[in-house]
Amino acid sequence: MSSPTTSVAEVKAPAASSGEGTLLRVLAAVSLCHLINDMVQSILPSIYPILKSSFHLNFGQIGLITLTFQITASLLQPFIGMFTDRRPMPYSLPIGMACTMVGLVMLAFAPTFGLLLVAGSLFGVGSAIFHPESSRVARMASGGKHGFAQSFFQVGGNSGSAIGPLLAALIILPRGQIGVLWFTLATLTGILILSWVGGWYKARLEHLRSRPAEPREPHQSLPRGRVIFALFILMLLVFSKYFYISSLTSYYTFYLISRFHVSVASSQLHLFVLFGAIAAGTLIGGPVGDKFGRKYVIWASILGVLPFTLLLPYANLFWTGVLSVVIGVIIASAFSAILVYAQELVPGRVGMISGLFFGFAFGMGGIGAAVLGQIADKTSIIFVYHLCAYLPAIGLLTGLLPNIEPNRRKKRA
To answer: What residue ranges in 276-326 does DSSP mark as E strands?
Structure first.
């Protein structure tokens, strides 16, 4: 059984039983598998045109596939994380990837719309199993650099989401629905890698359980009500971040075409640069939080991006490109800091917190895309960017978060 003692040791444990090289290999392995997981899942919306034509689907049915996938992933993650906090399951990681692979095979051969929904739900189950436990492994392999580890882990997912549609266009579109099977090679590779990670995870748990109990950090005695309030504030910050990110990732190309009349190819190039900026910001946020404090990164990332989001709807094409890169880098740096801050706010519940925040972020991204699409239909895509520009003002709520980290300068001194 897992215990708070084990989790505190997990935070404090040096790389005694695993050298730094081993920890880095484990971290690289879960990041690579995060890339595979998110790459495979991003091909589902990429092949909607094929599915729409083959099964004569309407947009409502397309939306139902997305809803099935996203609801399954969002709702299951915190419960799976809560369960594995109490009873860690090192080999659940390859099982999660196997669920995704079964979903791929079913997607390739599904003869009916009902089986497409089952395939989408299997994608969601795979994601729900993978994220909480892999986030825990990233923390265990951090060597104390929790922010860096979460950022490194997140970059894998961001990279997978970015290259998935590109690979779908190159591999699946020329072959049709059956072309999905090529991606089973990636998931099979992921299963093999995660089986090795599961072995390391099991050995690491045994090592941590053999360590003596360590004293708790002072912030761990925060009143329950204050902890719940802080988690609520963090959820609002995640809401603001992912609603705004949805306006960029889902509608940026339409915005550029509508406002500046650029070509589709030019808009796609701008979107590729934006994804690169988001990946860079994700990687930067964690190490900066390790050095200066998570709360400072949350302040700078959510509220700090507000001047740039307010300027974006009034900029010309050149400055729109520049501002979108700045916005992508700044706002993407928040999630790793928010996640690690929440994990330290609720010690001993790494899986539950990871599942809760991954699930909520995933859900907010999907809901944001749907809501903003409805607003764009009733008004215009340009109005959406004027409206979303004010979302980062929610970052002012960061001031209500408790100071749970030691003073970094005093600690270095």
So the answer is: none
